[in-house]
Amino acid sequence: MKLMFIGAAHEVTGSCHYINACGKHILIDYGMEQGQNIFENVDLPVEAPLIDYVLLTHAHVDHSGMLPLLYARGFRGRIFMTEASADLCSIMLRDCAHIQMQEAEWHNRKAKRNSEFKAAEPVYTMEDADGAIKQIVPCPYEKQIELCDGIQIRFADIGHLLGSASIEVWLNEGGQERKIVFSGDIGNKNQPLIKDPSYTKDADYVVMESTYGDRLHSTERPDYVKELADIIQTTFNRGGNVVIPSFAVGRTQEMLYFLRKIKEDKLIQGFPDFPVYVDSPLAVEATGIFHKNELQCFDEEAMELVKKGINPITFPGLNLSITSDESKAINFDMTPKVILSASGMCEAGRIRHHLKHNLWRQECTILFVGYQAVGTLGRAIIDGTEQVKLFGETIDIRADIKQLTGISGHADKEGLLEWIGAFENRPKKVFIVHGEDSVTETFAQTLIDECDLDAYAPYSGTRFDLISGTFDYEAVPVRVTPKKKAVSDVFSRLMAAGQRLIGVIKKNEGVANKDLAKFADQINSLCDKWDR
């Protein structure tokens, strides 16, 4: 039984862990890196066709976004996740593919003006996303599921996002039993709409996140409705727009929950019917999925509204923009308005167009309502940069930059300690992941000092033996030059196809000699054609 750390090691995004047990190769998450890449991540220890299962904690792209690439490289195993996560991934992975294809198209259109034009291809295509989606196995919460002989799993609601889960994994190999729990992203308490995190009683080993492991949210629950209403009122009085970069799944629905309350209580004076635009096809679809899963996932407060026949996330004046023409029309209407648009970190999507039209207007407000990773455009704006470049144009920042402080889908330090403290038996070791470099180390030391736990923050490539409880290899950090790569070239695609072929060959070991000989002849024939 081996555990290996691939992604989100001393970093916040790109979550990925690997288990080898009972002759099976298992990934827990396979996420996309967002923002600045601080450390090199090692490659998967086996080729994609050899991966048997993927266990997904939740649908956010920093946990799920590379599943289509895994499929493109030959993965044909099953992807287990909760029922709500399955619904969300069915739209989010397609949206990711759409963005990849758009960025490649934009790159190629721009590069044609350069004499050294080099064509680019998307990291993966819509066909790859559709292929990955077909491998999904939806699972209910709290049901123990047998993956194969010797491996069982169970999903528990972790309160971070609709469908989010911690995952319990039971391993039984050669008479040795071990249980490992992957926290996923642990939710903040008292969030609108979804339930608080549930707790797990026992584990031999725990892999837990640490996003906010060095800070505390407000000791008193903020009055988000009042704070948001004050920002809207001040901005509208100036004649400006409130532009909210918001994650299409989760945060957008929470903001709609607050805005419905603001309108119901008539908190905005002089603008009783102010328009609210949700400018994100993904957010519109996700809102429908929230409705579909309300009975399983909504908290008591939201369910009270549902029982009264009130939709918690819709109201008069709500406009859903689907087409690009509808999106463009928003900025030609000078009526003060609230614009919710993705992506939440301003790295892609329609929000960049709204920033281009509103950042330079001093009467407007850009309101951030979620975590901004290091290296993202959103983080740069929050940190006080005076200019940004959007679509080849330099934009001076004159708008009022605000944050709705305290609103977070992640537990703070106290919430993290409460979650790990709920284990009735003391885990043999707790691995700290999914946090910025210094935070992972700080939180690991907190667990050692305050909880008397054996805690460790691994770097990518670290391997641990779950039977002996010892490290096979402790990786050291390998820093990279900050660079965001949105598209891969055609040769990279060819190399990926080659890796898939190697994986397929290994998977056919033991097949009849006659079939293997035919396969070898086909490969050699292809090589003869291209060997120049």
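(ticket continues) Second input and output from the same batch:
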Amino acid sequence: MTERRGLAKAAALIAAGNITSRVLGLVRDTVIAGLFGATGAVSAYRTAEFVPRQFYDLLVGGMISSALVPVFSEYAEKDRRVLWHVAGRILSLAVVVLGGLVLLGELLAPQIAWLLGGDGLDLALLTRLLRLTMPAMLFLSLSGIVAGLLYALKRFVYPAFTAATFNAGIVLVTLVGAWIFRWGIETVALGLITGSVAQVLIQLPGLRGAKLGFKFNLHHPVLRRIGKLYQPVILGLVVTLFQTSLDRRLANGTGASSLAWMQNATTLIQFPIGLVSVAISLAILPTLSRYAAQAMGKSDAAPEANRHFTETLFSGIKIVLILIIPATVALFILAEPIIRLLFEHGQFTPADTAQTALALRFYLLGLIFAAVDQPLIFAFYARQNTLTPALVGIAAVGAYLLAVFAPTLFRPLQMTDLVLADSVKQFSHVLLMLWLIRRWGSLRGHGLESTALKAALAAAAMGAALWAGRRWGESLLLPVSLTNETLLVLGLSAVGGAVYLGGIALLRVEEIGLLVASVRERVSGF
């Protein structure tokens, strides 16, 4: 119970950072939508920012959970001197390699623009935006490595708020650039650079006591170990990079505004994933890594460690289910009111709202699967098995490709085909992961089915209340205005939350009590 309470407490802290980040992310996209609408210029920016983000995911982002945190966690327990030694070399290597890639990206920006832009975008604008955003690759990567080090040290506060700092930088620079200097979409790209630099700076106080230096040496045995762990991951990420690049090119081919609509819907999807799934997965990863190291040893404590490993994993998954199921139902029913409130201002039209809501509902078909998938992937990483998730990822991309191109046998490709294919990919991935994880023990006996059923029943009651409340509220709160839209969304959210929590309490779901207790503890600590 103490271990589970500690996990819930760590998850609550990370979730607090994610709440701040996701709120600022919504503010960011609201500002972009209000200033620039859902135009081809916004799609060009979304395509340009995709490049440094994807290279970060490919070279560092996937390494954090799959290799850095497990290895850093091991040395954080054993020998801090070796930890600083290894971390310094990884940071030095990142500066040299990524600095070179930034320069290469600046030179090849026109070719990258042609490859990703398709026929629907202004390639000259896309090239300019690519050159502005490319340096973010380096700073995002440095921030990610430092975050991995701090997670291993269980210093969750600073990395928990890096994404919030990133989004705040984009918002501030965009507003200043657009309102004061009358810059165009380029001001958002400058905000991206500012936010990525701020991510690094905000974490520096967390490195107290660290003895890091520039040490460019590729021959340390721990570096080879991290590289060995990461090799399968990078294979899977290359395939994913191909899929996401294809997704953007195809989206740009279905219309100049398609990518902007899809990105706004993705922002809403990423809110519960970041708040729930990512927070819980990061919270349990150091503990899973510790139990995995004991379970894979040859001592008498191995069976007990393996039991604790499984209990920790399924406790995390149950918390994910309790929180993500009602979020899915609420977003599905309240899609239009939420999108109108957040985005339908300035250049963002009612037609854009309708298309964004359509994309959102297709994305929601895969939300629960995507959320459950994250802790499953981290469980394999904790056991230093990076090959299995990579192979599953490749298989899931195959399912995506089938789902994308099957409709084109009968008609032209549509935006909704791409969104539905993403949900098919999420479903395929989690199904394979659950099938493979059975070798660690039966999926039964951990209360997953009971928790999912109780959460679904409470969410169904909540959904009925939201459906009725939306119809009544929209007729009552006329004419449509920002105040009335805010009252509608906040009122329905309060009603839905109360109905769901009441249902969960009546059904006696244990994990919700742990979450409430950890939040109370965190609040009282402040």
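Agent notes: The mean pLDDT is 84. The longest helix spans residues 40-78. Closing as not reproducible unless the customer responds.
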